[in-house]
Each structure stands twice: as structure tokens, then as C-alpha cells.
Design brief:
The complex is a heterodimer of chains A (254) and B (316).
Chain A: E1 4-15, E2 18-29, E3 33-37, H1 44-52, E4 59-64, E5 67-68, H2 74-80, E6 82-85, H3 97-106, H4 123-135, H5 151-164, E7 169-173, H6 181-194, E8 199-203, H7 207-213, E9 216-221, E10 224-229, H8 231-236, H9 238-245
Parallel strand pairs in A: 3-8, 3-9, 6-7, 7-8
Antiparallel strand pairs in A: 1-2, 1-4, 4-5, 9-10
Helix pairs in contact in A: 3-4, 3-5, 4-5
Chain B: H1 4-26, H2 31-55, H3 64-79, H4 85-107, H5 113-132, E1 142-143, H6 159-182, H7 184-194, H8 196-201, H9 206-232, E2 234-235, H10 242-255, H11 262-278, H12 284-298, H13 302-305
Antiparallel strand pairs in B: 1-2
The chains are: A alpha/beta (254), B mainly alpha (316).
Amino acid sequence: MSDVILQVRDLNKSFGGVVATDHLDFDVQFGEIHAVIGPNGAGKTTFVAQLAGMLSPDSGEIIFAGTEIGSMSAPERSHLGLARSFQITSVFPAFSALENVILAIQAHAGHSFRFWKPASTDVDLVKPAREILEQVGLGQRSLSLAGNLAHGEQRQLEIAMALATEPKMLLLDEPTAGMGAEESENMRQFLRRLKGEYSMLLIEHDMDTVFSLADRVTVLVYGRAIATGSPDEIRNNSEVRAAYLGEDEVQTDA
Amino acid sequence: MLSRLKLWVLIISFLILAFLPIVAEAIGEEFYISLVARMMIFAIAAMSLDLILGYGGMISFGHAMFFGLGCYSVGILAFYEITNGWVQLAVCVFGTALIGLFVGYISLRTSGIYFIMVTFALAQMFYFLGISLETYGGDDGLPIDTRSEFFSFFDLSEELNMYYLILGTLTACTILGWKCVNSRFGMVLRGSRANLPRMEAIGFPTLKYRLSAFIISGVMCGLAGFLLGNLTEFLTPEYMHWFRSGEIMVMVIVGGMGTLFGPLYGAFAYLIFEEVMASFTEYWQFYFGPILIVLVLFAKQGLWGLLPGKERLGDE
């Protein structure tokens, strides 16, 4: 069991009559990238929201790094080392890239009931923030306002903020959403570099990204996991092809 | 951060305030001293509201409640002949902090229009409480016979001492406020205004921080009320009326939301306009309306935003 960082057992969530998560069992091993795919309405977003603490499950267990987190708040989960990036880019547009990362570091550097010293020149925050921006390749852009960054750069900043919280695991909600081919490729390379260092749960529409990065893939349909396996196994699984991949086998969502 | 020009504007403004009484006495118009003192008090109140409204995105429509409570803490204690300024001040600070905790805790469970309504409703409760307290004058109000007594060598019954106490408080609030909004705490506040779920996801328990900001803002506004009670030597529930809350909010908007210093100028602009226009017409607000609309449409950060160098809040 010690090689499992995230374990989900018999998770259920429904909205009125709509079952969004249906007796879901799921796990992520240390250091692996586990992708979750599924057609629109498969319950991916609801699943992420329950993992991140934005929604509470109706029943079931979520065990992260040995702790049951199902009833914890989002900030508490963040402090345990579960970091998420958002599907819709949600950096702070009027803060500089540096300040965005500073904020994330600050969240994990003790309490913020500090009223005197300016935060954006505090060397305890600025130095690590710069290092992270270098690491994600945004070093040159640190003083640009986040709102002025290109879309791909904003997605990178989004992940930089997740990294700044010193996570054990990344919950990546469609990191290549809205990206062009080149930007997507950059993001894939970037995530490949992080592989091994962090465990990742990858929610993704883009099949190139999923099949080139993931160690394992779980297919979600109507809130149920219909298959879990290596990318090859999933590709050749007839049930999956029928339910999701369709005739085209590989579909690329922009 | 603060452009050089803005810094100079601020320094010169405070110098003008510091020398104003001397000039007023020289030209024999002492009337201006208490007039400007009153404006400075509203400037403190407006600045306190900007902390949560501009920086925290909390649209409190009941801020005058704190204003009134500060005033009552002087008046009620003076009524029982407790004129020791330190005792009154302690009651004011702890009283407004406690009520800030109560009101903030309830209203921060809601957001948007509901937040506005809850703060509005709770403030009106205190207004009607004030009216029902017949002992303290009910809706007629109550004269405050003796001003707060702090030091024997600093007698507040001297108009000049009163003036400089208010100026000192305004200066302190300005500096502390500016430190606060740029500190780690201020970053959390600005981030929460921009994107609450994001702040939670990176690990901030935002309620704690927003509630603290609400309390700090309330105490600061309470101090303004404390000074107003002393200046006018009168307490009235009218200070807590929602109309007052609206006025303070207008001052913030005119001066520039989320700029901290802007509301200071907003308060002065509003009260000077009132003072000047009211001598011509009873319906001065009729003329104020269009000005407010023009400002809101064309100067997003109010009067302060007309100066070059934009303040950044975390969104927009």
C-alpha cells in the first residue's frame, strides 16, 4: 500500500437524479502519471472537484498520502501536498508572474497575518518564486503582468503556482486546454520533465498528450471507471473504443 | 508601487492639512478648522471601507454602523461621567472589533448581493437599536458634555488639539493602511477579491483573512466615529443610518476604489461639494449625481486614478 499516494474507494456523488460519480475506485501510484479520460459529461470535472475539496462526496473514501481527506477543506488539502491546476486559466491577471508565484509560496510559508513588510520585495518569497519561474521557463517574463502573458505561458504559470505549494501530487485539469499544436508540445515536454518528481493525475481531452505521457489511463463513462490500464491496453480495449474513442480511435480535441 | 508624483501629492496634502489651522487663525476664519477636521474624520471612514471594499471586494453597505458605534462609545461613557479617553478608546476598539467579528462572520457566509443585504440589514438593526435607547436620547440624540480626556497637557476641549489628534489619527491610518495592503496580508486580501477558489486551492483559508480584514476595517471606522463624537460633542443614531453607509461608499468610489489614498480625496471632494452647493440649493445631490456617473464611467479609479500610475488589485 505504501506505493499508493492517492486512493479513492467507492466514491459516489449525484446531483438530484444525475449520477456524476458512480461507485468509483481509483488510485495513483507514487511517481506515476495516471490519466483520466472520458467523453463530455463523464464526470471528470465532478471527480476533480471532489478530490480538490470544492465538492463533498455523498459517500466513499479519498485517502491521500495515508490521510482520509474526503471531509477536508481545499486549503487543508493543499497543505497536505495536493496541488491542482485549473481547467480554465485562473492566474491573477493584474499581478505579475512573479507575484502570482509569490502568493502560492506565501500560502505555505506560515500564516499571512503579517501586516508590515511589503510582500512583493520580501526576499524569502521572491527568491524561491524566481527559481520556480526559471524552472518552468518563465524566468524572462517574471515582471510581466500575468494577464499579458500568452495563453500557453499562463498555463505554465498556473502549473508554476501549483509547484510553488511544494506538492506531493499534481492534479492537472486539462493542462493543454485551448492550446495550439506547438504550445501543447511544449507543455508535454514540460510535464515529461516533471515526471517522476511528482505523482500526477492528468485529466485531459487531448489524446496525444494522454498517450504520450500517461503510465496508466482510466476511462470514465457516466461516472464509472469502465477500464484502467496502460495506454496500449486502453487503445485496444473494445469496450473503450465503443464507448468513447468511437470509429476514429484517436480524436484530438482542440 | 506608488509613483513619485502620487507620493508628492500625498506629502503636500498632509502638509496643507498640518498648516491649515495656522492659516485659518491668521485670517480669522477658525470655522474652517472644525470643518476640515470633520472632513478628515470622513476620510478615515472612507479609507477604512476601501480596505475591504476596494482591496477585499467585500461590498459592505453597513459601514456607518461602526461609525455610529465609535460615537456611542464616547457618548454613553461620557453620559455616566466616564470621561477617561483611554477607557473610552478601549471600549470603542474592543466593542467595534467584537461587533465586526459578529457581523463579519455572518455576512461572509454569503457573497455578492446577499453580502450587501446582510451588512445593510445588520447595520439597520443597530440604527433602530440606537433609536430605541431612550436613555441616550433615542432618535433626538444626546449631547456629549465632556470630550475624552487623555493627557492633562493635551486638552481636547481646545479646538486645535482636537484638530491635531484627528490629523494624527488620519496620518497613522494612512501609513498603516498602506503598509497593510502591500504586506502579505494585503496580498491575501487582494487575491481573495480576484479569485476566491484559486486562493483556497493554493492553500489559503480565506475566511480567516477576510474576516480579520472586516474587523480591522470596522475598528478603523469605529475610531473615526470616536473622533466625530468628540468633535461634534453629540451622538445620534443618524450616524448609523444606511444613508451614511451609502455616503461613505460614494466617497470611496469618487476617490477611487482600491487605491487607499483615493477615498481620502473622495471624502474631501464630496464634503466640499456638499458644503459649497448646499449654500446655493437644497437639492445639491441633484447636481452631484451626474458628476458621480461621469466619474464611474470615465475614471475607473476615481479622482486618484486621474493621476498617472495605476494601482493593481489582482483582477481587471
